[in-house]
From TrEMBL:
Residues found modified as 4-aspartylphosphate: 51
SUPFAM superfamilies, A to Z: CheY-like
Organism for this UniProt entry: Paraburkholderia haematera
UniProt protein name: Transcriptional regulatory protein tctD
Gene: tctD_6
CDD domains reported for this sequence: REC_OmpR_PmrA-like (cd17624), trans_reg_C (cd00383)
Taxonomic superkingdom: Bacteria
Entry-linked SMART domains: REC, Trans_reg_C
Length: 224
């Protein structure tokens, strides 16, 4: 899953980026409202972490523009003011949740995961593809009830395929879900990660199928 962090405090932003990458999230990070607005108009994210006080366009205006475009991505506001008025303003502007600085790492991660679960709705139990299981609450993969050890980008790509299992996922969509806008990618980056995932799934009935010119699809080889 991919997040956007909009935070102008460079030290805090780097801390959050490192924290969330450690939680197997792909993350883009920008430090001003105008850059955030451009990215949100062009990219799709699973959650947005948005500071209120930003240069070049404040967080409330970024959020207002996002909602006017009809984008329902969950937004977690980062605020330095924990007053009731400030919280009400966040929700009135269209935010889904807020966290007051300074915040605990565990609280931030928990609130992000809660927004993802809320967005997923009915997908709260377990997704199954053959003998491969995905648990949305923890974002863990299991094969035959044993944890599947994956590197962060392998995890993100398999997650994108599992959440859309049975449907074709384009290479572009996988790249957007697994890499930040600043990453320098080779043309075959996704092919390399798909190859690694197929090795992880070699003994599984869950298979990643290549549809040339279209993308990839995750499906079970078990008989229907």
């Amino acid at each position: 899953m991919k997040l956007l962090l909009v935070e102008d405090n460079a030290e805090l932003a780097q801390w959050i980026v490192n924290l969330l990458r450690g939680e197997n999230f792909a993350i883009d990070c920008v430090g001003d409202g105008e850059s955030a607005d451009r990215l949100l108009a062009a990219q799709c994210y699973d959650v947005v972490l948005l500071d209120i006080q930003l240069p070049r366009m404040d967080g409330k205006e970024v959020l207002a523009r996002l909602r006017r475009r009809g984008d329902k991505v969950p937004v977690l506001m980062l605020t330095a003011n924990g007053s009731t008025d400030d919280k009400v303003d966040c929700f009135s502007a269209g935010a889904d949740d807020y966290v007051v600085k300074p915040f605990d790492a565990r609280e931030l991660v928990a609130r992000i995961k809660a927004l993802i679960r809320r967005q997923a709705g009915a997908m709260s139990g377990c997704l199954v593809c053959g003998d491969l299981q995905y648990i949305p609450d923890t974002r863990d993969f299991c094969h035959n009830n044993q944890p599947l050890a994956l590197r962060p980008r392998e995890h993100t790509i398999l997650e994108a395929l599992m959440l859309r299992q049975g449907k074709t996922v384009s290479k572009t969509a996988l790249m957007e879900s697994a890499f930040s806008v600043d990453d320098e990618l080779s043309a075959d980056a996704i092919d390399i990660y798909i190859h690694r995932l197929r090795r992880h799934l070699a003994s599984s009935s869950a298979q990643i199928i290549t549809l040339r010119g279209l993308g990839y699809i995750l499906r079970s080889s078990d008989p229907a």
